[in-house]
Amino acid sequence: MIDLHSHILHDFDDGARTLEAAIEMARAAVAMGVRVMAATPHGRNSTNVDYSRYSVALLTERLTELRAALAEQEINLELVPGTEIYGEPGVVERLRAGELLPYGASRAVLVEFPLSSPAEVVEQIVFALQVAGYRVIYAHPERMRYVQHDPNALVPLIERGALMQLTGDALLGIQGPAMCHLAETLVIHRLVQIIGSDAHGPHFGRMPNLGAACARAAELIGDAEADAMTRAIPAMILSDGPISPPSPIPVRRPLSLF
Ligand SMILES: [Fe+2]
């Protein structure tokens, strides 16, 4: 499997605190069947000073240290660099300047948004990135208030080629029953196309869990589509290949759980 969202780089953001914790995360991911993991630390943004250490130079340094440690310990996990980009005005310019990273050598970018952003603000930024030639991976849309209110609000973005990344913990019930119900609804209605762990550490709560999440998705939509969410589609994202995910099925009744 390919996990496109993690905070595995040590001593960098709110993810792995130490190199040892990062190694433990890598071991846990491999044990669950993950072979490729994107290291996507939070990019520096205008609202969170905790991420002010972010720089591509430090990211590259941490990546090099972790790759060497994994090689030494014979842990077979390929790491791909990226950034969890904070969706705010100016991201296109910062990507062009090389301050924020797409996944590896691809044109795909992982973008999160302030949880209370309205759909129109999200769409403006997504479309600006798409016009600039980037493929947008929308990080954990299930956390967004407007999506919790109306999951169908994701349909226009999906129809424009944006890909939705559901977080494994949401589907596994670790974030509570209401979030679990929303996650299941998003999977069943094909409103999410990728599952990522968003792992922040080796232990309970946003840990490497892609195998368990994929198994749960398979119970809902079958093995083939669940596998695509964790293998084929992520592989095409990393290689800028063609992707034609299943069409969304509109949710008939509002969830009214949040
Ligand atoms: Fe994240």
What does this protein structure show overall?
This protein has 258 residues and is α/β, with parallel strands linked by helices. It has a single domain, classed as Alpha-Beta Barrel (TIM Barrel). 40% of the residues lie in helices and 12% in strands. The protein contains eleven helices and eight strands. Strands 4-5-6-7-8 form a five-stranded parallel sheet, with helices on both faces. Strands 1-2-3 form a three-stranded parallel sheet, with helices on one face. Helix 1 (19-31) crosses helix 2 (56-72) and helix 9 packs antiparallel against helix 10. The model has no long low-confidence stretch (mean pLDDT 95). The structure holds fe (ii) ion (FE2). Fe (ii) ion (FE2) binds at residues 5, 7, 84, 139, 198.
Please identify which CATH superfamily we are dealing with: Metal-dependent hydrolases
Taking all Cα atoms into account, the compactness measure Rg is: 17 Å
Estimate nothing, just give the exact number of structural domains.
1
Helical run tally: 11
The CATH topology turns out to be TIM Barrel
- Give me the CATH architecture, please: Alpha-Beta Barrel
Heterogens: fe (ii) ion
SS-based structural class?
alpha/beta
Q: What CATH first level would be assigned?
A: Alpha Beta
Roughly how many Å apart are the termini?
A: 32 Å
Sequence of strands across the biggest β-sheet? 4-5-6-7-8
What is the percentage of strand-forming residues?
Answer: 5-15%
List the uncertain runs. none
Characterize the main sheet. 5 strands, parallel
Tell the overall outline.
globular
